[in-house]
């Protein structure tokens, strides 16, 4: 037991876990002993496990240009590989083959997921470490790239590595966004849900997630991290991990959930701030309860009034002060109502005349489309933004979420 704890404690993605928390992982480990020249991982196959070398060594290699087999390096006792398979099922990036008789521990993603659901602290520390490691590798590549007297091939190789890491970061971030949810999955057909996510560069700082809770309740969060790029994307990873775990226990109490997320950010990531909005849908009683953390209020269209509902609840952004105070408001949901959540990327976009798109314009366009019974509202909003700004790339990430009841 002590030997296993020592091995696990030296693995960076478990950094920060106590001995008691590491003990929870040990029963999940399966042992595999393989003779020399045994293929442990095949490049291109789906990843579903992490591997830790207890004794022996392996060779990591990959095929280049479909013909050249290139050795990337050897790993020895205490090393690990395949760790990102614990957060996604992306294809393996290389072959891993034993050099000598090797004893390996295998940690299965499915079993590990079950552990994370039951242990919030293990979950957010693990996801934080994974994101830190991924972006640390990326930063290392960028910092090593210089525009000095390198030959063209050397520059090309480094740029290829940077692009590969950016691609990996994009895939990880896509994992954090609820892309595969269908209307029936969310509201059982009682509402139509659509969204648009457009990061201004390869990876962004906007984030949203939807989680089904018990007894017909649904929790939805949208957030916008300060800035964009690597640092902001790291924040989305941390928020995804802690929200997915915390919402199961605190999702029915919006103010407590937002307070927990705020304290978590103060504790885990220093000097990274975000605005956020959380909505709790009660599909049985047709009600919604909302609380915000420094974020713009959504636009709530009430069909029976043929006008917008005035939304008013206060709350400071995440990560600013440890004892942030939050409020909530509740209202009924009726047939024909629509709710538009958004990040500030759309309303704060400027055009060539230094005019801002503005909340006023967004509200007018949304209202006009509703009254004209337009379909594909978000796509038409995006087209209006492009026509207004007349730019090929926007200044900030743009995220829109629309619920139509």
Explained architecture:
By secondary structure, the protein is of the alpha+beta class. The protein folds into three domains: about 1-115, Sandwich (Jelly Rolls); about 120-170; about 175-405, 4-Layer Sandwich (Phosphatase 2c, domain 1), CATH 3.60.40.10. About 35% of the residues lie in helices and about 25% in strands. The chain is built from eleven helices and 18 strands. The strands form four sheets. A five-stranded antiparallel sheet has the order 9-18-17-14-15. A five-stranded antiparallel sheet has the order 10-11-12-13-16, with helices on one face. Strands 1-8-3-6 form a four-stranded antiparallel sheet. Strand 12 and strand 13 form a beta hairpin. Helix 3 packs across helix 4 (about 120-145), helix 4 (about 120-145) runs antiparallel to helix 5 (about 150-175) and helix 5 (about 150-175) runs parallel beside helix 7 (about 230-250). The radius of gyration is 24 Å and the shape is elongated.
């Amino acid at each position: 037991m002590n030997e296993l704890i020592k091995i696990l404690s030296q693995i960076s993605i478990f950094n920060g876990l106590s001995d008691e928390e590491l003990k929870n992982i040990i029963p999940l480990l399966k042992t595999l002993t393989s003779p020399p020249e045994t293929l442990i991982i095949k490049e291109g196959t789906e990843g579903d496990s992490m591997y830790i070398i207890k004794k022996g060594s392996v060779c990591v290699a990959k095929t280049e240009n479909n013909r050249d087999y290139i050795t990337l390096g050897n790993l020895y006792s205490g090393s690990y590989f395949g760790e990102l398979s614990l957060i996604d099922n992306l294809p393996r990036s290389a072959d891993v083959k034993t050099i000598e008789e090797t004893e390996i521990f295998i940690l299965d993603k499915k079993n590990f997921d079950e552990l994370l659901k039951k242990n919030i602290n293990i979950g957010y520390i693990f996801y934080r470490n994974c994101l830190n490691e991924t972006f640390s590798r990326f930063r290392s590549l960028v910092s090593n790239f210089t525009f000095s007297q390198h030959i063209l091939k050397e520059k090309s190789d480094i740029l290829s590595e940077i692009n590969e890491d950016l691609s990996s970061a994009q895939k990880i971030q896509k994992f954090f966004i609820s892309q595969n949810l269908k209307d029936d999955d969310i509201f059982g057909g009682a509402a139509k849900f659509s969204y648009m996510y457009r990061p201004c560069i390869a990876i962004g700082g906007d984030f949203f997630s939807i989680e089904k809770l018990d007894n017909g309740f649904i929790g939805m969060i949208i957030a916008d991290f300060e800035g964009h790029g690597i640092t902001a994307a790291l924040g989305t990873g941390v928020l995804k991990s802690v929200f997915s775990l915390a919402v199961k226990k605190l999702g029915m109490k919006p103010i407590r959930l937002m307070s927990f997320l705020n304290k978590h950010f103060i504790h885990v990531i220093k000097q990274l701030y975000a605005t956020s909005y959380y909505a709790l849908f009660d599909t049985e009683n047709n009600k919604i309860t909302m609380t915000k953390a420094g974020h713009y209020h959504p636009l709530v269209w009430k069909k029976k009034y043929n006008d917008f509902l005035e939304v008013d609840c206060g709350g400071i952004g995440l990560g600013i002060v440890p004892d942030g105070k939050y409020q909530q408001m509740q209202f009924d949901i009726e047939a024909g109502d629509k709710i538009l959540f958004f990040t500030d990327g759309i309303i704060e976009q400027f055009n060539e005349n230094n005019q801002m798109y503005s909340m006023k314009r967004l509200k007018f366009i949304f209202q006009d489309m509703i009254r004209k019974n337009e379909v594909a509202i978000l796509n038409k909003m995006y087209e209006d933004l492009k026509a207004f700004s007349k730019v090929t790339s926007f200044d900030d990430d743009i995220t829109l979420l629309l619920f139509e009841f």
